[in-house]
């Protein structure tokens, strides 16, 4: 009996659309989770100034 590896794993051309579909599904789930979650703060100038500072500090490390 011979082993047919193509039966157990799709070829690379088939894997890419499957991976993209899974990525879109995962992104959609994250967006919907975020949309249904309670707000935790205000995204105002102070928030973005602090975020910018944290990113700059992380890049300097």
Can you walk me through this structure?
The chain has a domain at 11-37. The chain has 61 residues and is an all-alpha fold. It is built from three helices and no strands. It has helices at 5-8, 12-36, 45-60. The termini are far apart.
- Could you give the order of the helices and strands? HHH
Percentage beta strand: under 5%
Report the average pLDDT across residues: 89
Low-confidence stretches: none
What level of helicity do the residues show? over 70%
Q: What does the radius of gyration come to?
A: 21 Å
**Class inferred from helices and paired strands:** mainly alpha
Tell me, briefly, the overall form: elongated
Number of strands: 0
| N-to-C span | 58 Å
Biggest sheet features: none
Q: Helical segment tally?
A: 3
